[in-house]
Amino acid sequence: MGNILFVNSIQKQCGVHSYGLRTFNILKKSEKYKFIYVEPESDADYQALVFQHQPDGIIYNFHPSTMTWFNGCRMGHIKHYILWHEGTEFTNLTPDYWLYVDSTSQETK
Questions:
Q1: Sign of torsion, CA 99 104 107 108?
Q2: What are the beta bridge partners of residue 38?
């Protein structure tokens, strides 16, 4: 089972934060991956969490106004994913993948 770090902002009273937490609560039910939820306060905190958990992938619930410390995806051996929000399309981030949610799709089990 691979470790996937889920990076959310620390700003609790925020729609972006709530969206990330809801997304994590769905993903953590996976039997294929172990999803680990973190809320780093700084780049140094983020680096320490990556070192601690040694993830195979990282999902960022990134928005430029809620994660101002984040300066881009690094660590080439780790796959990087960013959840798309309005505003993130104008960033200079270069993840391996962008994740888009289709709110019109039917729920599956």
A1: negative
A2: 7
For 98, list phi and psi in degrees, rounded to 5: -100, 135
3-class SS of residue 24 = helix
Give residue 54's pLDDT band: very low, low, confident or very high (50, 70, 90). Answer: very high
Q: pLDDT for 60-101, tens place per residue?
A: 998 878 888 887 767 668 999 988 876 656 567 788 888 887
Given a cut of 70, is residue 108 above it in pLDDT? no
Nearby residues of 27 by Cβ (< 8 Å), 6 or more positions away: 4, 6, 33, 35, 59
Distance CA 96, CA 2 (A): 17
CA distance 47 to 17: 20
Q: Is 28 exposed, middle or buried (0-12, 13-18, 19+ CB in 10 A)?
A: middle
Please state the separation of Cα 63 from the chain's center in Å: 10
Beta bridge partners of 3: 34
Q: Which two tokens stand for residue 22?
A: 């809801």
